[in-house]
Structure formats: C-alpha cells, structure tokens
Amino acid sequence: MSKNSPRILVISPNWIGDAVMAQPLLQRLRALHPGHPIDVLAPPAVAPVWRQMREVDEVLQTPFRHGALQLRERWRYARLLKARGYAEAYVLPNTLKYALIPWLAGIRRRVGYKGESRYGLINVMHHDDVPPRPMVPFYAALANAPDAPLAPAPKPALQVTPEQVASACATAGLAPERLLVVFAPGAEFGSAKRWPPQHFAALAQAIVASRPTAQVALLGSPKDRAVCDEIMAAVAGTPAAACVRNIAGQTSLAEAVALIGHTAAVVSNDSGLLHVASSLDRPVVAIYGPTDPDHAPPFSSVAAALSLRLDCSPCRQRECPLGHHDCMRKLDAGTVWHTLQPMLPAAAGA
C-alpha cells in the first residue's frame, strides 16, 4: 500500500455494537479502493473494537467530551487531520458536531446520512428507508452512491489471536482448556433490555448440570458489575457456584473480545457484546424484549434471536412503560436452555 495513496477517514459511532456493524462498510471501501489506507476516528471506549479489524490501518482516538460541542477543540483537531491528507470521510454518527470535523479539516468528499441539519457539512447525502434498514446494510450502503441499488452486505468479521486469548484467560482466571460459556447480562441502553438475573442464574445451573466442567463467565463493563453480582447471589449454594465467575469490569474491552473469541457460546441481551460475538462467528443466543430483533439481529453461522414478540413490544423504552417487564420476565430460562443446549459441544470436557 503506497504511502502516497489518498487516505480515507471513517468517523466511528459511539456504541460498540454499532462500530461492529459498521465494519462491512470498511470491507466495501477496501474492495473499491484497494490501495487507500483507511483510518478510523473513534471514542476511546470503542477504539479497541476497531483495532481487531483487518481493514483498519490506524485508529485515532477522539479527544472530545461526550455530548459537548467544543468547537475550538474540534477546529484544532481538524487541523491535525488536514495534515494527514484525507481524500474522503465517512461520518457515521448522525450528529452535527461530528460532521463538523471533516468539513473543518477541508476533506473534499464528506459522506453520511441526513442527520441533524448537516447540509453543506455532508456533501454526499444519503437518506434512510422507511421503515429503517437493519444496521449492517444501513452503514454498508454509504460505500456506494446515494441512488445506487441496495446490495447484500457482507457480515462483520473481527479477529483475535491465540496470544490475545491466552493473555485474556490468564487475566480473568479462566482455564483455557475448559469449555467456556459467556453471559453478557448488561445493556447500556437501560434496564428494560436486561433479562432478569434470576433467569441467568437458572440458565447457569442448567449448563453446569449438563456440563459439570464448564465455566460460565459474566462479562461486561464496570456498570454491569451490580447486575452480575445479583446473578452470583442467585447461584450461591448451588453446584453452579464454583463454575460461575463474575469478571464484569475486570477486563479491558480488548480482553473481553478475546474471551468471546474463545467461548463455546454466548448468551446476551441486545448489547454491544452480542454483536462482538456475532462478528467472531461464535454461537449466540440473543435475547430481545423492548427492541426489535429484526433491526440488529445476530449474524453468526449458529445463532438464535429469542423474543416473545408481545403486543407491547418493541416499545424501545429504557424502562418498561407498563411496569411489568413481561417481554423479558416471561421468557424463562428453560426456553433459553432448550435453544442453547444444541449449540454446545457434545462432550462434557470439550
């Protein structure tokens, strides 16, 4: 790849799952412009995901506070970007403040969706369909002209190395030779997206009863520690207690990605880690309540999206507006275990 080739800048979404689902855009850009380096400008919390993508040449971390305009700081940062010689930029967040950056940097071709009052800042304007497309083709479409026919999008694909897996297992205190099942009980969006801790605990007991040597890792950010503690309290005093580990907040995002790459299966709410698991092609059971499983479904080769599809869902609310949370509470552990069990290796020690 020539150092003199025009560079491409991709401005990342702020959420882990969205960043994963944007990766097919980079696959298309690499195919269309094979000699052009692709850099990604991403928030620090999302940057580790981009570093696991083979299409990315360099990850630049945004220095801005979340939600703040910081116009002077954006102008200064745009000057630094201008010196890197970008020919085009793809602005994935739909906000004005991120569209300002490539405009201030003098990047000639600035691609994105209509968003909030971005005419002029975005000069190759795309418009979403009604109803909206699933997220993967939504982002991938930006690689083509706004009026181009829609084409099937490739699957997102992250990669981890054996060295990353070994290091992450050591950090988490997990035995790499034992079967590992990962639970992702958190959800940044709000409590409505969380399957009840008691259901996760019952599922852990079913796994250990069937696979006595299995390890169940509760994975997430420091914000998810409390809900994972509830699961640990619910399995206390059962045979599963010795096999379940709460490592929420104890691993970096890069380490969490490596552990997911090593797991036999993942059970997750609709969250960023769900899409990480899909992008690593791990068997996935995805649990949906207030969100639409058709909008951001799992895309692993072996995957199941479970939803009761009640009349009141998808409500897309952070908390249940009716107060009963039936969309999650009535999806019991037995149903999830029935779906998960065939995904696991047949041998107990596999």
CATH architect. name of the largest domain? 3-Layer(aba) Sandwich
**Residue fraction in strands:** 15-25%
- State the total count of DSSP E strands: 12
Largest sheet: 6 strands, parallel
Radius of gyration: 21 Å
As a percent range, the share of helical residues equals 25-40%
Number of helices in the DSSP assignment: 13
User: Order of strands side by side in the largest beta sheet?
Assistant: 3-2-1-4-5-6
> How would you sum up the global shape?
globular
CATH topology of the largest domain: Rossmann fold
Elements, N to C (H/E): EHHEHEHEHEEHHEHEHEHEHEEHH
Please, what is the average pLDDT? 92
The residue ranges in which pLDDT falls below 50 over 5 or more consecutive positions are none
Distance between the termini: 42 Å
Name of the CATH first level of the largest domain: Alpha Beta
For the record, the count of structural domains works out to 2
Q: In CATH, what is the homologous superfamily of the largest domain?
A: Glycogen Phosphorylase B
Q: Which class of secondary structure composition applies to the elements?
A: alpha/beta
